[in-house]
Amino acid sequence: MWIHPNRYYYLGLLEQEKHMLFMSYVLNIKSSLTIGDLAAEFPAEPEKGLRHYLALAYNSQPSVLLIENIELFFPINGDSPLVLYYFRELLDNCFKEKVAITVIGTSINIDSINPAARSLFEDEIEFGTLTPMERLEIFETCAKNLDFSLDVDIKDINDKCHGFVAADVVSLCRMAAEHSDTKSIQQTGEPCELKISNDDFLYGLQKIRISGLQEKNSVQKVESVKWSDIGGLEEVKSVLEESVIWIYKHVDSFRHLGIRPSNGVLLYGPPGTGKTLIAKAVATESSANFIPVSIPDLIKGEIGESEKAIANVFKIARRCSPCIVFLDELEAMFGCKESSGSFGKKIISQLLLELDESDSVDQGVVVLAATNNPEAIDPSLLRPGRIDRLVYIRPPSFTERISILQMQNVKTKFSKNINFREIAEKTENFTGADLKALVQRAVFLKFKKYRAKKLQLNSEIESSIDQADLLEALSKFSPSVNLSQLDMYEKFSKSLD
After folding, report:
1. What angle do CA 189, 191, 194 make, to 5 degrees?
2. Is residue 490 assigned to a domain?
3. Long-range pairs for 132-136 at CB < 8 Å and ≥24 separation?
4. Does residue 174 contact residue 138 with C-beta atoms inside 8 Å?
5. TM segments (predicted)?
6. Helix and strand element counts for the chain (H, E)
7. Which of 47, 57, 85, 486 would disulfide-bridge 65, Cβ 3.0–4.6 Å?
8. Which domain-ending residue is among 392, 427, 457?
C-alpha cells in the first residue's frame, strides 16, 4: 500500500492524520492486514497468517504493518491466545532487536479491544469529531479542485454538516459534483462542465449517510427547526437568543467586552409546551453542534460507567465546540441528592465537575436542559456558573394560540370560515401540543363522518376542516395541564425573582 505524499493535503485531514499518513509515506507500508485477508489466505489458521505478515514486514524494513479493525483480531472476549501470543512476540522482538518496524492498529471502538493487546501499543491517537472550523477548512480545500456557482456559500453548507467526519465532507462534495453531472446529461444529452450549485449540495445532504453519527452520545444531525416554525413564545425566543445564540454568533464581541455568558440554561414548564422543539430550534439558529442526551445514555448497570458516560459526553462536546448538550428530563437523572442515594450523588457530582470545567475554560459548550418538575432538581446544579439561566415555558397566550392554530394550516386543510380567535378564546391554558392534538381530533371526527356516509375524501372543499369540526372536537377535549399544576409553575417562577 503506497500513499502519495500530497494526498492528505487534498483531503484536508487533521494534524494527527497528516502525521500518520506522512510516516506511512516515509517508511512505506509493505504490509496491510485485515481480518478478511487472514480468513481468505489462511482459513482456520489465523496465527499462521499473522506470522506470515509479520515476516513480510520484518523482511521489508523499514516498514509499517497496518492492522485494520484490530478489535476483530483481538476482541475483548476473544478465544485466540495463539494470535495474541505471536503478536506480543513480534513486538518484544522489535523492541529487543531495534528493528525498523512500526505497527499501527486502527479501531472504531477502542473499548472492544482485548486489554492485553491494547496494552502492547505505546501510543493512542483519537480522531474526534471535527470542529466547525476544521470542517470548513476541509470544505475549502476540496473547493480548490471544484467549480462552484455563485449561489454556493461554503460557510452555510458547513453549518448544515453537524457530525461530519473528513470522509463525509469529501463524499458530500463528490455527490454534489455527480448530481451536477447528471443534470448536465439530462439537459444536453451529454456530460458538460456545469458549475456545482447550492441545490446540488442540498441534494447531497439529503442522500448522504453520515458516518460520524453512528456512535452513541455523538453529535447528532438535528431536525431543522427555525424560530419561524414555532408559533408564539416571542419572549422565550428573545431570552434564548441572548443566552445561547449570541454566544456563538458574537464570540469576539463577548470576549472583547469581557462578558461571560451562561454555561447552562434550563427550560421548565408543563409537558407539551414545546421545550424539545425549542432546543432543536436553538441548535439550528446557532449553527452549533448538538448532542441530545437521554436517560438510557447515562444510566449504566456497572459501577462507575454512568460517570464515564457523562464525562464522555462533555469530552465530545468540547472536542466539537461550539456545541450544545441537551439534557432532557433533567429531574429524572439529576434529582435532589438527599433522595437519590449514593448512585445519584455520584452522577450529580460528575455533572457538577463537568459544568465547572466548562465554566473555567472558554470552551464554547452550553448545556441546555429541560424539565417538567424544576423543584425536583438538585439545587447545586442551578447555582451561578452552572445551569443558572432558568426560562419558564408557559402555555401560549391568546395571540400565541392564534399563531399556533394558523400554523396548523400548513399540514391541515382549513375552510375559509375558520374563526381562529373564537377557538383561541375557548382554549385558555391549552399547551401547543394540546392545540395540535385538537386539530388532529377534528380531522379524525371529519373522517368518521365521511366514513359513515361512505363518501371519499377527494374534494378539497368538502374534505377541509371547518369551524363546526373544531368546536365539536373542543367539546370532547380538555387541556392536559390543570390549574393546580399551573399554579405550581407560577409560584416557582416568582420564587426566582
Report:
1. 110
2. no
3. 132/158, 132/159, 132/287, 132/288, 132/289, 132/320, 132/322, 134/14, 135/161, 135/164, 135/169
4. no
5. none
6. 24, 8
7. 57
8. 392
